Hints:
Layout: E1 30-34, E2 45-47, H1 50-57, H2 65-76, E3 82-86, E4 94-98, E5 104-108, H3 117-123, E6 146-148, H4 155-168, E7 172-176, E8 197-201, E9 204-208, E10 212-216, H5 219-232, E11 249-250, H6 256-262, E12 267-273, E13 276-279, H7 294-310
Parallel strand pairs: 1-3, 1-6, 6-7, 7-8, 8-12
Antiparallel strand pairs: 2-3, 4-5, 9-10, 9-11, 12-13
Helix pairs in contact: 2-5, 3-4
Amino acid sequence: MATSYLSPGVYVEEVDRGSKPIEAVGTNTVGFLGESSKGPLNESVLITNWSQFVKTFGDFKDCSEHLAHAVYGFFNNGGSRCFVVNVGAPEQAKVEVKASGDKKDEKAAAPVLAGGGRDGLYIGRDGGPGARTGLKCFDEVDEIAILAAPGQISPAVQDALLSHAETRKDRFAVLDSPETITGGVDKLPKPRDSKYGAYYFPWIQVYDPDKGNIFVPPSGHICGVYSRTDSERGVHKAPANEIVRGALGLKYNVSKGEQDLLNPKGINAIRFMNGGIRIWGARTLSSDPSWRYINVRRLFIMVESSIERATQWVVFEPNDHR
């Protein structure tokens, strides 16, 4: 505002009035937890394509097949950005070490174990800035909107993922079912009730360049479908009735009758439908009818996060008519 008018004339002033515009936050950045014998440990690394992942963490031979195929499936299904935390070397991993002379030799990589065994690697510990491990590393990254720990079916790890999402309220967890089940689908174990997570069954078959066709957990591919749907249609669209790219087959072929048992429990089936392998469910793990569907929960996460971020300018402003 002008402080003085020294001569006659017209003075134009800009006055800041009204509310600030609210921009939608991103919804398709994924956080992956996994194991690799290569790359930094317990550090959130931004990955924007498969080549960058291979350069940083190695390919299918260096990583656990769960992590490598999850990230590959994520980008293959339309994903564009993810953060990867390497929690330690896979069991039975091989790393190159220098032997006598210039010759290189291989030996088993020593897995880094935290309290609680391998579950502890994923759950992690919060030792403060620069000393966080596992899942706690994602507390430092606000862009993440989707969480996954491919192949981790331990109740402790899945509970940690759900608790992390529930505490932050700005992200959503994608969980895997076990590879094999004993008895019928009605015996399939289910994670605890939560409106911040979704659960998928069964595992999918993909091509591995070293092993041929193998079965892998679907969470990485599912996260890619989430990202693709968000980009093409918007977060309000349910990530269902969508082709899972790269899926060659299914560990179990779920019938309509079996899905009638799974759907009310919040277990989303992946089925061969309409000429392709598709996600044929869009339910959260919540028993609350208000938060039964994934797109409803994720839409409100986006709206709430957008409002919170867009109104930060009012902090420390006088509480007056403005």
